[in-house]
Amino acid sequence: MSFYVSLIISLSRPQGMARQALVWLAGAVTCLALVVTSSFAPQDKMAAFPPSPPHPTDTPHAHRQGPRVDQGHSGNVSSVLGGRASLRCRVLNRGNHTVSWIRHRDLHLLTVDHYTYTTDQRFQALHEPSTGDWVLLVGWVQQRDAGVYECQIGTTPPTSHFVTLGVMEPRTIILGGGDLHVNTGSTINLTCLVLHHARPPDAITWVHQGKEVHYASARGGVSVVTEAGEVSRSALLVQRATLTDAGNYTCQPKGAASATARVHVIHGEHRAAMHGNVGDGGFLANTRLVTWAALSSLWWAWAAHEPLWRPPSPPLILLLLLASLLLPGALTPHSLPAAAHLPSA
Fold this sequence. Notes:
The chain is built from 7 helices and 19 strands. It has helices at residues 2-11, 17-38, 43-47, 60-65, 268-276, 282-303, 314-330; strands spanning 68-69, 77-80, 85-92, 99-103, 108-112, 115-116, 123-128, 133-138, 147-153, 159-168, 171-174, 179-183, 188-195, 204-208, 211-212, 222-227, 232-238, 247-253, 259-266.
């Protein structure tokens, strides 16, 4: 150790940048030597403390002695509103212990083994001997059924496993968001999806500006393609769009919420004007990028004329940061008018 200290003292005299580098290197070697030598312990002391034997409950044999829940086959469950949910609890090595289902919302005992202890006939107990699953069946799922349910094994103390039931309400969406811009003479294509329903809707109706869309109208060129399934889909096609086709289009599934999209029909020159407008945030992001690149160039041009060991002054750093944040905001085109839309007929 005295060798390292004398080396540091002899090299610490300012004799150029090479000496400075050697001082830093000697200090780093000293720190590394201290860390390495302190990490070793005598072998006789390590042998004096042998590893403790595993706890009896940590051995595989201990897990096979009593009942336990198979976590991999007893997970959370999601169901659609009005559907049917199956909450599973796979019990291994049950023996003669009972298995109960308890609703945590009100601590109501629902089932014990094959028996049901609730007047709500939507709940039912089911046992599958081939898999060891104890299943809580919930029919005609309601929103109030969402929450935590406890599968409890009648050991001492009781062994519990918790399963969460999620309830998804039906939802209707129109692909593409709330606004669609098309040119005159093109085709309006709107696709409506009905999600999370217990059964497909009996009908899906399209409404334009408060009036139902008639496929056999004198206008012609209107068609609807509907597919029923786990996710019901309805596509509305309006060919050769005119100004009178602009406005709000609403998808109305029977027995589910509706969704609305607004269609803007524009001329070619208006469409070009719309493409000239970059929209919210586009000009600001590009201007900020260009400004930051220019300031970075100035930074490196200044640093090229400075010694490598001299850092830039704090006022210069602060000035560059403020300029990169404030300058793009001053160039934002707040005064540019938005693309004009023709009023709907």
